[in-house]
Design a protein that fits this description.
By secondary structure, this protein is mainly alpha-helical. It is 65% helix and 1% strand.
C-alpha cells in the first residue's frame, strides 16, 4: 500500500491513505502501541510516501497526509525525523493558502499543535513555521486566527526563546486590543507568566510591551476624537487583568510607580470618556465585587500606590468640577478609599484626607454670594455622601421608628395609655376586616413589646386584638393560608411567630393558645395528608403542593417551629397530638416539600420529639432527604451556643453514609465544630471512630484532632500519624500550593487565618507543645528553613519555585500557633520571609510571601515581631510599610533579538545564480519594506510573465522561503510569494534538492553526504525548554477554539 501511494491517481490515494490511517488507529490501541508504531514507521517507507502526498495537486490528499502524519507522532525520535525531513517547507506552503484550502490548513494546524502536546515537541518546532503563525495572528479576518493566537501562547509558555526569535510576542500583545474578548485572558496570562520569572523576563523589553497599553489612554486624548471607546474599554480590561495579578502589580509599580502615576494623571484629562473608563477601572480593582479574585493584601498595596500617586487629590479635583456623570463615580470611589484606608492602612495614609480641606477653601474664595453658596452646597453634598453614603433608609411608620431593635421591647413595655391606644388604632386590626390593609409594622411593635406588660396583655385580650390575630392565623379562616407570597410578606410571618412566642411566655397566654385550638387545627390539616378518609372529604387541602409553593401556608411550619423552642411549646404540641402526625408525615411519599419544611422549622436544643424525628430522617429517608437533614443539623449546631453531644452522636454515623454527598455534609459540620470548640474534639474521640474509613473521606477532620494533646495521642495510637506525617512532607506540601491559590482567588476578601484556608498538616501538628517537640526532632522544619535560605538558587527552576512556596506556607502555618512560632522565631524564619518578599526574582513568590505572612500575625507575639520588621498589620492584611524594596525589580538586558543572539544561518546555496535569480530574491526581500513593496510586487509579476521558468526552480523557492523566514511579512505577502512558485514540480529530484540544502534549518552545517538510514540522521541542537512551565498541567487544560477536538 505504501509503495503505490505516490504513483496512483488522487482518488486511489485518498482510499489508500484512509485505509492506512485506519490501520494506524487500530495499532494505537492496547499495550505496546508505541513499539508497533515504531516498527511500522521505520520498517516501511510510510513517511517518504506521505511526503509526496503533501505536494499532491489535490487538496484532499494533502489534508489526509497531514492527518496521518499527526497520528504517527509518538516519541521524540519521530518528532526529530519529521523535523529533519524539512516538513516546514510544506507546512508554510499550506498555512499561507487562502480560505479555499481551509480543510488542508486545519489539518496542518492540528499537525503543528501535535508537536506541542509532546514534551520534546516545542524544542523541535521549526522557527519559520512559528513566524507564519505570527503572520496569521495579524490577519484579523482569517478563520484560523484564534487558533494561531492560542498556539502562539502555548509556544511562548513552553519555549519563550523560540517565540521571541520568531517575533511572535509583538503580534500577540497587539492582538489583545484587536479582540475578540475571550483571547484577552490567555494572552495576558502568557505575558504575566513570562514576566514572573527572571529567566523568561529577558525576552520582553523593559517598559515597552506592557506600557503600550497605558499609552492607549494618552493617545485617546491626543487623537482629538478619532479614538475608539471600545478600544479604551479593552485597554481597561487589559489593565485590570494585569493589576489583578501579583506579577502585573509588581511590574507596573516598578520604576517609582511611573505606570500607576500615568493612570492617575490621566484623570486630569478634560475628556469625560477617559475619566469614566479610568474611574471604572480603579473602582473595579479596589472595590470588592462578587466573583472578584483580588485579595485584600493586593488591594491594599495597590491603594497605597495610588495614594502615593495623589489619587485622593485627583478625586477631589473631579468632585470640584461637578460633572454629572463623573461626580457620583468619584464620590463612590473616594468614599471607599477613605473607609478602606482607615481599616487597613497606616495612619499616614489617612493624612491624605487633608486634601478635602481644599473644598473649605472653595467655599470662601468666590466674590459673589451665589458662587459661594454653590461651593458650600457641593461641599456639604460630599460630606453627606462620604459620612452617610450607605446609611439605611427605613419606611417604618411606628412611633418607635429610629430606636435600636434591642431597646424597642423595653420602650414599648412602658408606653403611656395614649400612645398605646394610638398604636392599636393605627394598626387597623380592630377597625378593618380587610387584613391586607392592616399595618404590620405597628402590629409587630405591639406583640413584641406591650404584650410583655400584664396590664397591656389584659387590654389586648379583652379588646379582641388577640382573638382577631388568632382568627387571622387559623387555617379555617383562609386568610393567612390563602395569601400569596410576595415581596415584604416576610414581615407578616415574623409578626405571627412573635405573637405565638409571646403567648407561650405566660401561663395566661398558654391557656389562650390551647383553648383557641389553633395548633390542633393546624395539626388536623396536616393529618389530611396521611388520612385517606379526611383527604377524600376535603378536596381543597390546606397543605397541597400548590399552596405550599405559592401561598403563606408553608409558614405554618415556622409557627410550629416556634413551639419547639420551649418546654411549654413542646407540651402544647403533645397535647394537640401534632407529633403523632409528624411521625406519619415522614413516611409520606412524594411530599419531600413537607418533610423539608418540617425538619427545617424545628429547633433541636431541647430533648424530645424533634430530635427523634430528625434522627429518623437522617438514617431512613431518601438520599436527598438525608442530605437535607444532615445540613439542617449542621445549621442548628452552628446556631446553638451550648455543647450538644446529641448532635455529635447523630453526625458520626453520617460519615459512613453510602452517599458521598451526605458523608461530606457531615464532615463539613464536624470539621466546623472542631475548629470552634476543642471540647468537641474530646467528645468525638470518645466515640472511637473507624480511622481506616475516615482517612479517605474525612482526612481534613482527622487533622483537627491534633489540635489537642488527646487527639494527637489518639492518632499516634491508631498508627495514623506516621504515614500522614511522611505523606505531607513528601507530597502534601506541594499539592497544597494550587489548592490554597485557588481558594484565595475564590475567597479574596476573607481575612487570612487557618479557618479561612484549606487545612494544612503542619498547622494542626504544631498546635500543641507535644506536636512541636515531634516536629523539631523530625528535621522537617530544618529542611523548610534550608529551602528558604537558598531561595535565589532554587527559584531558577519550576520545581524550585514550588519548593519555595511550599516551605513558605508550611512555615507560616507553623508560626500561626503559639508553640510553633517559638520554633520558627529561634531560626529567624520571619526575617527570612521578609527578605524573600523583597529580593525574590520570581514575583509570584513575593506575593505568596506577603499573603502567608498574615498567618503569623494571627497572635500577638507574631504580630509584634512582624511590626518590628517594618510591616503594618491591619484588620485583614499584613503588608510592608515601605513599598520601594518590594516593588524593586532589577533591570534586565533584552535577549530577544534573533539577529544578535543567533550565530548560525542557513546552509548556503553553492549553485550558480544569474541576474534574474538575484533580482527575484532582491524583489522578494523588498516586499517586507512597505515603501518599496508595491514596486517589488509589480516587478515580480513582470518577471514571472517574461520568465515563468524561473519560478519552477525548487531551490529558488527554498531561498525565497528563507527570506520570509528571516523578515516579517504579512500573510498576504507570504501567500503572494507562494503563489509565484505554484508551478514548481515536486518530484523526487525536487525533494532531494530540499534535503541537500537542509531546507529551512538554521542548526545544520553543510554535510558531504546524506545517508538514507535513520540512524545516520544527525541530532539537532535543541532550544532549551524553560523549566517554569508544568507541561502536563498545561496540556490537560488546553482549550482550542476554532474547530472541534
Amino acid at each position: 500500500m505504501c509503495n503505490r501511494v505516490h504513483v496512483v491517481d488522487s482518488v486511489d490515494k485518498v482510499e489508500d491513505i484512509g485505509e492506512l490511517s485506519q490501520l494506524i488507529d487500530e495499532m494505537k490501541q492496547g499495550p505496546y502501541a508505541d513499539k508497533r508504531l515504531s516498527d511500522l514507521f521505520y520498517s516501511s517507507n510510510v513517511f517518504g510516501c506521505l511526503r509526496f502526498c503533501l505536494v499532491d495537486p489535490t487538496k484532499e490528499v494533502r489534508a489526509l497526509a497531514y492527518r496521518m502524519l499527526r497520528q504517527l507522532i509518538h516519541d521524540k525520535l519521530s518528532l526529530s525525523h519529521f523535523a529533519n525531513m524539512h516538513l516546514d517547507v510544506f507546512l508554510i506552503r499550506t498555512l499561507v493558502r487562502d480560505s479555499r484550502f481551509d480543510t488542508e490548513r486545519e489539518q496542518a494546524l492540528r499537525f503543528v499543535r501535535r508537536f506541542l502536546e509532546h514534551p520534546e515537541g516545542p524544542d523541535l518546532l521549526p522557527l519559520p513555521v512559528v513566524r507564519v503563525l505570527s503572520a496569521l495572528c495579524e490577519q484579523l479576518d482569517d478563520r484560523f486566527r484564534v487558533i494561531a493566537v492560542e498556539t502562539l501562547c502555548e509556544v511562548a509558555l513552553l519555549n519563550p526563546k523560540l517565540a521571541c526569535f520568531a517575533n511572535s510576542l509583538k503580534p500577540l500583545f497587539l492582538g489583545i486590543l484587536d479582540g475578540p474578548d475571550f483571547l484577552l485572558e490567555p494572552i495576558v496570562s502568557t505575558f504575566l507568566c513570562l514576566l514572573d520569572h527572571p529567566q523568561h523576563r529577558v525576552y520582553l523589553r523593559p517598559d515597552v510591551e506592557i506600557e503600550s497599553v497605558i499609552c492607549s489612554f494618552m493617545e485617546a486624548y491626543t487623537s482629538k476624537g478619532s479614538y475608539s471607546v471600545e478600544k479604551l474599554d479593552t485597554a481597561s480590561q487589559v489593565m485590570y487583568a494585569l493589576f489583578s495579578s501579583w506579577t502585573g502589580l509588581f511590574v507596573l509599580c516598578r520604576n517609582k510607580k511611573q505606570s500607576v502615576r500615568s493612570l492617575v494623571d490621566a484623570l486630569s484629562f478634560p475628556d469625560g470618556e477617559i475619566r469614566i473608563v479610568l474611574l471604572n477601572l480603579i473602582s473595579k480593582i479596589l472595590i470588592p465585587e462578587h466573583g472578584s479574585r483580588i485579595s485584600n493584601h493586593h488591594r491594599a498595596l495597590f491603594l497605597m500606590t495610588l495614594i502615593d500617586c495623589r489619587l485622593v487629590e485627583a478625586l477631589v479635583h473631579l468632585i470640584k468640577e461637578n460633572h454629572k456623570v463623573v461626580l457620583p463615580k468619584a464620590i463612590d470611589l473616594l468614599t471607599w478609599v477613605l473607609a478602606f484606608a482607615e481599616e487597613e492602612l497606616e495612619k499616614r495614609y489617612m493624612e491624605q484626607v487633608e486634601a478635602l480641606s481644599v473644598l473649605f477653601q472653595i467655599a470662601s474664595d468666590f466674590h459673589n454670594e451665589s458662587e459661594r453658596q454653590f461651593a458650600r452646597d457641593k461641599f456639604v453634598k460630599l460630606l453627606d455622601t462620604v459620612i452617610l453614603y450607605h446609611k439605611p433608609r427605613s419606611s417604618h411608620l411606628s412611633p418607635l421608628d429610629g430606636i435600636d431593635n434591642n431597646m424597642r421591647a423595653r420602650v414599648a413595655f412602658h408606653l403611656d395609655d395614649m400612645t398605646f391606644r394610638n398604636m392599636i388604632n393605627s394598626s387597623e386590626v380592630l377597625g378593618l376586616k380587610e387584613h391586607p390593609k392592616w399595618n404590620w409594622d405597628i402590629i409587630f411593635d405591639i406583640v413584641s413589646g406591650p404584650m410583655l406588660n400584664p396590664k397591656r396583655f389584659e387590654e389586648l385580650y379583652r379588646g379582641r386584638f388577640m382573638a382577631k390575630l388568632i382568627h387571622y392565623i387559623r387555617p379555617s379562616s383562609h386568610q393567612f393560608s390563602d395569601e400569596k407570597l410576595q415581596d415584604g410578606s416576610r414581615k407578616v410571618t415574623v409578626t405571627c411567630c412573635t405573637f405565638v412566642q409571646m403567648l407561650l411566655g405566660s401561663t395566661e397566654g398558654f391557656r389562650i393558645l390551647f383553648e383557641s385550638k389553633l395548633i390542633a387545627e393546624i395539626g388536623e390539616c396536616l393529618g389530611q395528608l396521611v388520612d385517606p378518609v379526611l383527604g377524600a372529604l376535603n378536596q381543597d387541602l390546606i397543605f397541597s403542593k400548590a399552596r405550599m409553593a405559592e401561598t403563606r401556608t408553608r409558614d405554618y411550619f415556622a409557627i410550629l417551629g416556634v413551639l419547639t423552642q420551649s418546654a411549654d411549646g413542646l407540651k402544647l404540641l403533645e397535647l394537640a397530638r401534632v407529633f403523632s402526625v409528624f411521625y406519619q408525615l415522614l413516611d409520606l411519599r412524594g411530599r419531600d416539600d413537607i418533610v423539608k419544611a418540617l425538619i427545617s422549622s424545628m429547633h433541636y436544643e431541647l430533648e424530645g420529639h424533634p430530635r427523634f424525628i430528625l434522627s429518623k430522617v437522617m438514617v431512613s429517608g431518601y438520599k436527598e432527604i438525608r442530605l437535607f437533614a444532615t445540613e439542617q443539623l449542621g445549621r442548628s449546631l452552628k446556631r446553638s451556643k451550648k455543647r450538644n453531644e446529641w448532635g455529635i452522636r447523630s453526625l458520626i454515623p453520617q460519615l459512613y453514609d453510602p452517599s458521598v454527598e451526605v458523608s461530606n455534609a457531615a464532615l463539613q459540620v464536624l470539621t466546623w465544630q472542631m475548629e470552634n470548640n476543642d471540647e468537641f474534639i474530646h467528645e468525638f474521640i470518645a466515640y472511637q471512630p473507624d480511622l481506616e474509613h475516615l482517612s479517605t473521606v474525612a482526612n481534613t477532620l482527622l487533622l483537627r484532632l491534633m489540635n489537642v494533646p488527646a487527639g494527637l495521642e489518639y492518632l499516634m495510637d491508631q498508627e495514623y500519624l506516621e504515614d500522614e506525617f511522611d505523606y505531607w512532607f513528601e507530597h502534601g506540601v506541594f499539592q497544597y500550593i494550587p489548592a490554597v491559590e485557588q481558594h484565595l482567588e475564590n475567597n479574596s476578601t476573607a481575612a487570612i487565618s487557618e479557618k479561612n484556608l484549606p487545612a494544612h498538616f503542619y498547622n494542626h501538628f504544631s498546635k500543641t507543645k507535644e506536636g512541636c517537640e515531634l516536629l523539631d526532632t523530625s528535621g522537617h522544619l530544618a529542611v523548610f528553613l534550608e529551602i528558604l535560605g537558598h531561595f535565589q538558587e532554587l527559584e531558577q527552576s519550576l520545581d524550585g519555585v514550588i519548593k519555595i512556596k511550599a516551605a513558605l506556607w508550611s512555615i507560616a502555618h507553623i508560626g500561626s500557633n503559639k508553640y510553633g512560632f517559638q520554633l520558627i522565631a529561634r531560626a529567624n524564619a520571619v526575617q527570612l520571609m521578609v527578605k524573600i518578599a523583597r529580593e525574590s526574582g520570581v514575583l509570584s513568590v513575593r506575593g505568596s510571601c506577603i499573603i502567608s505572612m498574615s498567618l503569623i500575625c494571627t497572635h500577638e507575639e507574631g504580630r509584634e515581631t512582624v511590626e518590628a520588621l517594618g510591616w503594618h498589620v491591619g484588620k485583614t492584611v499584613c503588608i510592608p510599610k515601605d513599598l520601594e524594596p518590594v516593588f524593586h525589580i532589577g533591570e534586565w538586558d533584552y535577549q530577544g533579538s534573533w539577529p544578535i543572539a543567533e550565530t548560525k544561518t542557513f546552509m548556503p546555496y553553492k549553485g550558480k545564480m544569474d541576474a534574474v535569480d538575484e533580482e527575484i530574491l532582491q524583489a522578494i526581500g523588498n516586499l517586507s519594506n512597505h515603501i518599496v513593496a508595491s514596486t517589488a510586487s509589480k516587478r515580480l509579476a513582470s518577471i514571472r510573465q517574461e520568465n515563468a521558468a524561473y519560478f519552477t526552480k525548487p531551490w529558488l523557492f527554498l531561498l525565497a522561503l528563507r527570506i520570509t523566514a528571516v523578515y516579517n511579512f504579512k500573510i498576504a505577502t507570504r501567500r503572494f510569494v507562494a503563489d509565484l512558485f505554484e508551478k514548481v514540480v515536486w518530484d523526487k529530484t525536487a525533494l532531494e534538492t530540499i534535503d541537500q540544502l537542509e531546507g529551512l534549518s538554521l542548526c545544520f552545517q553543510q554535510s558531504t553526504a546524506r545517508e538514507a538510514s535513520i540512524d545516520d540522521i544527525p541530532e539537532q541542537p535543541t532550544i532549551t525548554i524553560p523549566e517554569k512551565v508544568d507541561r502536563s498541567v498545561l496540556v490537560s487544560k488546553r482549550v482550542v477554539r476554532g474547530f472541534p477536538a
